[in-house]
Amino acid sequence: MSDGALRTPGGRHGTVAAGESGWAAPARLVGDGLPVPCLDGVDRPYAALDSAASTGAMTAVADRVARFLPWYSSVHRGAGYLSQLATAGYEHARREILGFAGRPDGGADIAILCRNTTEAINHLAYRLAVEPGDVVVTTAVEHHANLLPWGRVATRHVVACEADGTFSADAVVAALDGRPRPRLLAITGASNVTGWMPPLVPIVAAARERGVPVLVDAAQLAPHRPLPAEPDFLAFSGHKMYAPFGAGALVGPRAAFAAGEPFLAGGNAVDLVTLDDVIWKAPPDREEAGSPNVVGVLAFATAAAELRRIGFDAVARHDLALARRLRTGLAAIDGVRLLGPAPEAETLPIATFVVEGVPYALVAARLSAEHGVGVRHGCFCAHPYLARLLGLGAADLRRMAADVRRGDHSAFPGAVRASCGISATRADVDRLLAGVAAIAAGPPEAPYVLDRRTGDWWPAGFARPAAPAPG
Ligand code: PMP
To answer: Which residue, by CA, sits nearest to atom 12 of ligand 1?
Structure first.
């Protein structure tokens, strides 16, 4: 992208100047730069380039948790001072999360607090009460969390993607015009594999014109861009936005949860239970049976507030600087193939790549053992998308299935993914690029051993980290 224009879903547009200013990390995470042992005996500061999987805690989040813990108590049920305090904190956090999702407090929407995006989407799949013959439109770009729940309850119409891992708004609109009229469009806000952001603004507008409700899987979008206000439902996770304490949210209209059986049945969700009958509470309580994760929710809301305080302009500026260097840097290395859109395309700071002739799991192992760089490898819980990006055919998929059934992952296709969070630096990206260049240039000095069962590599004789964690 040459003009520095940043498009954010939901119609909010902004312009950022790419350049040196983008390199200042907008926030610090607990544990940034911790030294990790490398194969040559040198401890190097850990370059955490796996934030698309999960993030460390923001220091503000960890401080909030530490301050809250002495006051921790059960919520909703206790008359005690601490219980009242914890309840007020929990409900305040709910409002914070709703605000983060661009929804006004006291409006038509609610935030249902749950564990993560996966649970949020399964929750919705249960609550929408779709029938097997109902069509849910989804896409080939989705994480399994936004594919499998819909396959269980409905008939999926999957919008295909091109070889570069993208699809057009028109392709989605064509699926929305299919018959029977779809019950839902379930689409990602950003890919966890390529960082590509589908053109949500026209897609959501087209769905709304046709009366098709929209769920946006915002797991990747939430830490990087303002959440769009237009989709009916949003699902996102605290552990991807610097609050790794096990809380997530499903945001949607209260009316969608006002009738019918909740996803989980149990305490706190009910006004009255007899052995023959139950009167459920009004949502959101009706949807949150059992004791909630109070600490996690407070952490989640603190991260949401912190991201809003920092501002998504600053986050996006940092993202843009990182994404450009990461993606153009990788694409420029001999023997490296970047998967997905062109290196200059506007994406989140995520890059998935293969090094020709080197098993992807060996690339990841070498980056860690020789360079102190943490990345992810494999298929990133998006098998159909990876199959498309890697150009796998039906015969490859049959062979993979046979291997996996035998418990052998040694030839499972995949790639390496580097992804940057809010505290990633230019030095982290440069260390990755230097490491990948060295790996592409030649074999390791010391032997690595393949575990055929997992498909992972490890340097022969190198001590594995032992639990409990150091310190
Ligand atoms: N959707 C996307 C796009 C993701 O990246 C992830 C996590 N990798 C999920 C859904 C699932 O999130 P969680 O593991 O927090 O449930």
So the answer is: 117
The residue type found at 235 is A
pLDDT in tens, the chain (471 residues): 233 222 333 333 233 333 455 788 999 999 999 999 999 999 999 999 999 999 999 999 999 999 999 999 999 888 999 999 999 999 999 999 999 999 999 999 999 999 999 999 999 999 999 999 999 999 999 999 999 999 999 999 999 999 999 999 999 999 999 999 999 999 999 999 999 999 999 999 999 999 999 999 999 999 999 999 999 999 999 999 999 999 999 999 999 999 999 999 999 999 999 999 999 999 999 999 999 999 999 999 999 999 999 999 999 999 999 999 999 999 999 999 999 999 999 999 999 999 999 999 999 999 999 999 999 999 999 999 999 999 999 999 999 999 999 999 999 999 999 999 999 999 999 999 999 999 999 999 999 999 999 999 999 999 998 877 766
To which H or E segment does residue 176 belong? helix 169-176
pTM over 0.90: yes
Q: Atom of ligand 1 at shortest distance to CA of 237?
A: 15
* C-beta atoms surrounding 77 within 10 Å: 12
The residue annotated as part of the active site, out of 38, 114, 161, 381, is 381
Is residue 139 within 6 Å of ligand 1 at its C-beta? no
User: Does any ligand 1 atom lie closer than 6 A to the CB of residue 220?
Assistant: yes
Range list of β-strands (E), 310-438: 336-338, 350-355, 373-374, 376-378, 415-419
Known catalytic residue at 381: yes
DSSP 381-415: T-HHHHHHHHT--HHHHHHHHHHHHTT--TT---E
Residue 193 and residue 350 in contact, taking contact as beta carbons nearer than 8 Å = yes
Q: Supply the angle between the helices 294-310 and 81-100 in degrees, to the nearest 10.
A: 40
Q: Tell which atom from ligand 1 comes closest to the C-alpha of 117.
A: 16
